[in-house]
Task: structure prediction
Amino acid sequence: MHKTTLALQPLLTDPSVPLAEKFERLASAYEGEKMFILGCGPSLAEYTPAQLDELLTGKLVVALKQALDYVPTQGDYLVLNSWNFRRYSFGDARPVVIRESGKNDPPVFLDGDIELQIPRPSSRDDQLALSKRFDDYMFSKTLERPWGPGVLYEVGFYMAEHFKVSEVVTLGWDVGVRNTPQMPHFYDTTSPEVVRIIRQSRDIEDVAERNRFLHDRGVVYNRPRIIPEEVDDCASVSADWQGWLNGKGIELKVVSHKSLAADTIPRTRIENEV
Result:
């Protein structure tokens, strides 16, 4: 964990501290630093957990969802929404949990240290990937989150801007696979035990009870299907994100052999960035 995170953690995890005050303290808190964002794409597994643990110790690391399970000792911040949710067990290296949710989202069973709201959009055109209204959702302007889609676009890149880092290096940001309603993840291998639990859960009609059943057993729930066009949208807008971040003085790099992110975004390796 980064030394600045260690200093801020008591305030950021205190439920009595107003949300606005937390973001005031986070403004420019990591100025000039390098941020590593770990996503859940298959390329996360290009490194072993042991390799990442060694390379990222003491660095500023933002884990998106189950990426924290892969490297549980490395995560300053854990960013979640209500989808592809699961139970998290935090040890001594507990991250600051940032969770965004919408009014009609299905239930989950973990509160965030920082709770953000995302209003239900009226149409697909409201997606940030299409509107490209990046400036409108900087944390200095609003804490309400846009529809990205995805927590990287809704929260992750905005953290980089708010923290005033100089560079963002992503691992596991593969964007997806074209022409499919499924989003591949590094954790998609399903054990027979998980299959059995999922089958059992189908007999539970109440959504909250079913989700609690899956949550308590450590199984991912609230699995959404994606609109196939969203992959193209998210891939196409990656160049716009690069331009926006560059305009804020932030260089964007990708670690992945298979990412659909724009070719203009430099490819690199973690070992070359530490």
Q: What stands out?
A: The CA atoms of residues 26 and 223 lie 31 Å apart.
